[in-house]
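User: ok so my PI wants both of these folded by tonight, can you help

Assistant: No problem, let's get them done. Here's the first:
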Amino acid sequence: MSNEKNKTDKKNNEKANPNLEQNKKEPPVSSVNKAIVTGFIGGVFWSLLAYLAYILNFTEISPNLILQPFALGDWKNGTLGNFIGVVLIGILSIGAALIYYAILKRFTSMWVGIIYGAVLFALVFFLLNPIFPNLQTVFELPRGTVVTTVCIYILFGVFVGYSISFDYNELNADVEQP
């Protein structure tokens, strides 16, 4: 009986003192903030995977490609340049995630993310190709490089797209239920 009384006293203390840290609830994170975090994490993760693919000779394109338009020095071609490139890709991926959030968040299909990743690949390798001096055109790159790079972009698109869509639809499902 004393155990039941202790439990009751504990519940009453929690209700009586909402200022205690264990009784406080964290404010919910907005969907836009989650999209920003998802974009950064996705950009860093998939560009690190791309760097691994570069190290293992699956692709000739490394994350330091993003630094090539700038006259910085020889360090941009080494390991430091690749890791700085990974962080910059993560920052640019925030923009890609926010674009997805603004336009495509309501779609639940994985195919939307696949198409989004393919569109990002086309944007970088066809439209933005002239700003990268050391990047050959897609038709001049080896087939293995193109396939690996397309797959990484598609996986990034699926990761960002599915994560953002899932979060958005879960939030709306909670709001619609009484």
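One down. Here's the second:
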Amino acid sequence: MEPGRSSGARHPCTAGCHHRLTGPRRDPDTLPAGQHVVAASHTDRQTTLLVRTDTAVHDPTWTVGPLGLEDIVLAYMTRPADAVRDTRPALEVLR
């Protein structure tokens, strides 16, 4: 393959597909299916979410802000262990 050409394989997203959403207090489970919550924080009146999505956020109740790589890494590192779902097949020992 020539330098600078894509192999067609999908690369993991970085800062371009992660966004900070800030708006009125809301249950993160009500987001559209393509918006995956990485981190959430709430006050009495406000919700702030760090989401991963491949699509634009069209909900006008959210203020959408950019995230730096450090914010993204810290959000993933501080997730509770039960929030991380590993969908890869489990390895087995064959005898």
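Helices lie at 69-77. The radius of gyration is 17 Å. Good luck tonight!
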